[in-house]
Amino acid sequence: MAIEWFVLSLTDGVLQRTHPPRRAANLPWNECDIENLIALNPRFLDVQDHLPLRLCGISSTYKSPDQIYVDELGRIVVVEVKSGTAGLKAVAQAFAYAEHWRILPPSEVTEAAPLLWDDREACNESKGGHLKELTRLVVRKFDPKRCRGSANDMRSFARRFWGDCHLPLVGAPARGIVIAKDFDDESRNFAQLLTERRVGIELLSVDMVTSGERVYVKRNWAHRDPNVEPTWRQLRRAWRQRKIRQGFVLNGWADGNSWDSFTISAEKADEARIWLWASDSEAEIQTTVPDGWYSETNPNRRTLLREKFLDALPDGFDRSERYLTWDYKLPAQQRQVDRCILAVADAVKSVLVPNAPSL
């Protein structure tokens, strides 16, 4: 994947895209420096709209990743930072953390992962020099006085989005991120095997250089599935629509049709589904009349039901196909994606649900 460079502002800790000069010198860093960097720049890991539950590693008898985040659906993101070259053990560690934390009840997650609020919790073991300033900026950013009124636990976070104290997809497959200066071949191969088995694991190579008073940060995704996170973002967007939440349930990964897509099912007819899939540049929406509906008991009724369903769907699909599909370009057609999902959902609820075979 492409290498990206950012310049780090030592005034507010914010990163901005730019390339370093050719003669920049290597800057030593440790795990604490990276933890502080991400706490100040959650967009660096695409967790800027997540609730941070822990922002620095602590010594503990239980499985304790360096950072923990959760999104509004309840999906946990765990981050493990290594200062050198990471091996198989680091990837296995992140995988174990992700599995452990995703199945904890929200009350236990909140209790076991205290949010960084003051300098007693701050990561203050920086390498020093320019990077020592990051600790002060993190403490300032998460000062309780500045964060007053913000959601600081999973229940208050859920109330802000959904009006109650429950996140809708707690226990969903977690996202694990390992950050290191580099990764050996064994760790890369293991991450690839996990991804092929639907485990959300990412390897991020990070380094720093300095030139004069300026610090530059390199980001290079050593391993990252191109579809998982974009697809998850589409699912999150869809679930924020009241019309989707009222009448559908979340399924998580699809049931074999396409492993890198997610589905939602009609609440009163769980075989009636909508598949979602996306990359950074494309999005796809699919639905179908469930295979078993009247295909043997009443084929004529199935034919009529399919025709009625097709007529209720939005334009833009091939009526001859078994799976009815809509394709869009992202980000230019994101609004069309949103409208299409709502229109397909209306068709599912108005046509398929009332005609579902009785048990």
Notes on the structure:
The protein is of the alpha+beta class. The chain has two domains: 4-223, 3-Layer(aba) Sandwich (Trna Endonuclease, Chain: A, domain 1); 228-355, Yope Regulator, Chain: A (2-Layer Sandwich), CATH 3.30.1460. The chain has helices at 31-40, 88-102, 106-112, 132-141, 154-162, 185-196, 228-239, 242-245, 299-312, 334-352, and strands at 4-8, 15-17, 25-26, 51-54, 67-70, 76-81, 85-86, 175-180, 182-183, 200-211, 214-223, 248-253, 262-266, 269-278, 282-287, 324-329. It starts with a strand and ends in a 7-residue tail after the last helix.
Question: Which key terms come to mind for this protein?
Answer:
2 domains; 25% strand; 10 helices; alpha+beta; 9-stranded mixed β-sheet; Trna Endonuclease, Chain: A, domain 1; 359 residues
Quick take:
The chain is of the alpha+beta class and 359 residues long. It has 10 helices and 16 strands. The strands form 3 sheets. Strands 1, 2, 3, 4, 5, 6, 8, 10 and 11 form a 9-stranded mixed beta sheet that branches. The chain has a 5-stranded antiparallel beta sheet with strand order 12-13-14-15-16.
Task: Please give the domain count.
Answer: 2
Give the H and E element order: EEEHEEEEHHHHEEHEEHHEEEEHEH
Q: Total number of helical segments?
A: 10
CATH class of the largest domain: Alpha Beta
CATH architectural arrangement of the largest domain: 3-Layer(aba) Sandwich
Shape: elongated
Question: Could you list the spans in which at least 5 consecutive residues all have pLDDT below 50?
Answer: 116-120
Any idea of the CATH topology of the largest domain? Answer: Trna Endonuclease, Chain: A, domain 1
Q: What is the residue-mean pLDDT, rounded to a whole number?
A: 88
Largest sheet: 9 strands, mixed
Q: How many E strands? A: 16
- Provide the gyration radius in Å: 23 Å
Structural class: alpha+beta
